[in-house]
Amino acid sequence: MEKLIGMAFPVEVVQTVLLTGHLADEKPVSLLIIASPESGKTTATRKANISVSSDRRGEELAVALTDTTGKGLLKIISEHPNASHVIFNDLSITAGHKSHVTKYLFGVISAMTEEGITRTADPEGVRPYGKEGTKGIIGCITPRLARDQRFTWNMSGLTTRMLPFFYCQGIDIQLKVRRYHAGLLHKSDHSRETSSLVIPNEEMNVSVGKEYKEHILELARNVAQKLSKEGTSRNNPDYEELGYRRIIQFRSLAKANSLLTHPGDDEPRVHRVNVEFLRKLSRFISFRHAESLEEPSSSSDSGK
Fold first, then answer.
1. How many CA atoms lie within 13 A of 168 on its CB side?
2. Residues 83-120 as b or e (16 or more Cβ within 10 Å = b)
3. Number of C-alpha atoms within 13 angstroms, CB side, residue 100?
4. At a CB cut-off of 8 Å and minimum separation 6, what does 229 contact?
5. Which of 259-264's residues contact partners 24+ apart within 8 Å by CB, and which partners?
6. Which of 72, 61, 162, 151 lies closest to 110, judged by CA?
7. Residue 3 has pLDDT above 70, yes or no
8. pLDDT tens string 105-127
9. Which pLDDT band holds residue 74 (cuts at 50, 70, 90)?
10. Where are the domains of the chain?
């Protein structure tokens, strides 16, 4: 297994996103992981997806793909009805298809992650979909490709359906990774192990106190304002996010993160640490600017 040096937070983010698919009153949140090549994007999603403590099969949690088309994605949806997410290990591969093929794929993704796919018709016949027609995606992408696709996604509305998580490793992490691959890193210098992801046996209802609802609203609104400024361009000078989807996404993530940090709660609820998780996450939410994963050595998350 590859070592995840300095990657504990990205793994926590992916685990939290996966858990949004196990909330009774929310839809799965979709995540776009933006980072330079060799920054551990695919390794983080792989680690998050297999670190599962449950009687259920790991493959039911998410389906990982290297490449697909829109029609192929519809087939995946049918064959994996219990999976809450589809993971695209490298969106640059799917974006390399002919334009009409890529456009149809992102059209399917857009429908799947919002209202859900209910029925499709093609020469093979009419295909109805139930709950399996609604899934989230987790896509890994490089900064350059994210910039190239942003305008198209803005026009189609797909931009707001995905939460962009843009990180860079930082100099200290890069030095440790190089020393690890050279066989020079002492075992004690490895980053802490990520915790196993405990999947509930049933969909969970998680309550949110009024105070935390206010915090979630403020954080989501600030993120929407930041992304609105980033989204304006010469071709699209009036781009604006109203923030409705960001509020729903942040609410879902707060609930899901509580399942990760407090899996044994008799009455599941959002804790202060889960709001602080959102506060930290909001620094990374961007299509243009990467946030370093390196943290001050004295920081510590705690509280209820």
1. 12
2. bbbbbbbbbbebbebeeeebebbbebbbbbbbebbeeb
3. 0
4. none
5. 259/19, 259/22, 259/23, 259/198, 259/200, 259/204, 259/206, 260/12, 260/15, 260/16, 260/19, 260/195, 260/197, 260/198, 263/198, 263/200
6. 162
7. no
8. 988 999 999 889 999 988 888 99
9. very high
10. 8-203+285-292
CATH number (3.40.50, 3.30.70, 1.10.20, 2.130.10) of 8-203+285-292 reads 3.40.50
For the chain, the distance separating the N- and C-terminal CA atoms, rounded to the nearest angstrom, is 33
Contact 74, 108 (CB under 8 A): yes
Closest CA to 304 of 251, 268, 252, 253: 268
Cα gap 47→15, rounded to integer Å:
9
Task: Please list the residues that pair with 61 across neighbouring strands.
Answer: none
Its pTM stands at 0.89
Tens-place pLDDT, residues 149-191: 776 776 667 888 999 999 999 888 888 888 888 888 766 555 5
Distance CA 176, CA 210 (A): 43
- Phi and psi for 88 in degrees, rounded to 5? -100, 105
SS (H, E, C) 12-56: HHHHHHHHHHHECCCCCCEEEEECCCCCCHHHHHHHHHHCEECCC
